[in-house]
Amino acid sequence: MDVERIRADFPILCRQIYGRPLVYFDNGATTQKPRSVVDAIVDEYYSVNANVHRGVHFLSQQATELHEASRETVRRFINAKSTNEIIFTRGTTESINLLAFSFGEAMLQSGDEVIVSVMEHHSNIVPWQLLASRKGIKIKVIPMNDKGELLLDQYETLFTEKTKMVSVAHVSNVLGTINPIKEMIDVAHAHGVPFLVDAAQSIPHMAVDVQNLDADFLVFSAHKIYGPTGVGVLYGKENWLEKLPPYQGGGEMIQHVSFEKTIFNELPFKFEAGTPDYIGTTGLAKALDYVSLIGMEVISAYEDKLTKYALERLRSIPGMQIFGESENRGSVISFLVGDIHHFDMGTLLDRLGIAVRTGHHCAQPLMQRLGIEGTVRASFGLYNTVEEIDALVAGINRVRLMF
Ligand code: PLP
């Protein structure tokens, strides 16, 4: 992988921050965008823009073709069976809310149970809690060991005849743990329970194949895989989506409306009320084309090398405590150094041009489990380099000496 060539595709990486070259290690929060993505967005606004699906005129049809071609690009990228299984949303959070609402309406009754894990992002906890308060369902939590690995034997014991859904992150946004999601899906299916994979932190870093995983539902955000903000995907097996009611009402999601009765549109439009972000979906498709051209296996191997190097170098820093020591891990590293507050570390690293994230990372229950308030988090993307990791290590050592 020619990382210098890749970096040239991302204009923002040339920026200086406080007079120093930007080191962008906040990819877990959002990624930077290659020129091809931004150009496609600008081009569509300048030369194609018209509302999709409704118009007979040329531009509307061209915009519709682009939008539906993007759906096909997503289908191919995650190896779904049909574009009917690809619902465009505003992102991971909206995808989970959509599913929790629709699945909850159709399938859950008071006393039913949903299983999540202790390392979930708030967006895979709160929608289920909202459902719990609406419907009286119970949330059960898969615990983890001190290395940040889910306890699979305990997972199995959580199932009862009341269990109706399991919803777990593929990769933890704090610990970097890659959960054994395929194995966990098999367990859920053995109990006749569907499984939702939160792929927000896996889709940018590894090949994800919904048929191979046998995932019932899978969600992700475009902005974490070099695409634009405000667009995301809910994948669902067609036989599940057919059974679920719409999430929102409005234009696009209907076949016929009268004051007496409304007939909903077919899949996937049943779940896409209102004008979709058809420009954003073009951006998402371009981003998927971009990473596909490099190859997800190549990206995965490169980031793995970077992460191993970073872990080795970070561990050599006196007072370093790394949270998440799973063997099978992605390119997210959370840490604290001595008693330096994560916020101080993040602020001082920023002065050296190094962008890391600090805080609870929208995973407060996990912070409680770890007995801490927050961490510093460095998360890598395909354009990061070994030299940037050296700069991070030098920066941490400099901050350490100040305290
Ligand atoms: N799930 C995980 C594991 C995440 O890391 C994030 C974002 O950081 C989300 C869900 C929410 O994603 P979004 O804010 O794009 O909806």
Task: Describe this entry's structure for a reader.
By secondary structure, this protein is α/β, with parallel strands linked by helices. The radius of gyration is 22 Å and the shape is globular. The chain has 14 helices and 17 strands. It has two domains: 136 residues, Alpha-Beta Complex (Aspartate Aminotransferase, domain 1), CATH 3.90.1150.10; 255 residues, Type I PLP-dependent aspartate aminotransferase-like (Major domain) (Aspartate Aminotransferase, domain 2, 3-Layer(aba) Sandwich). The strands form five sheets. A seven-stranded mixed sheet has the order 4-10-9-8-7-5-6, sandwiched between helices. Pyridoxal-5'-phosphate binds next to helix 4. The site of pyridoxal-5'-phosphate has 12 residues, from helix 4.
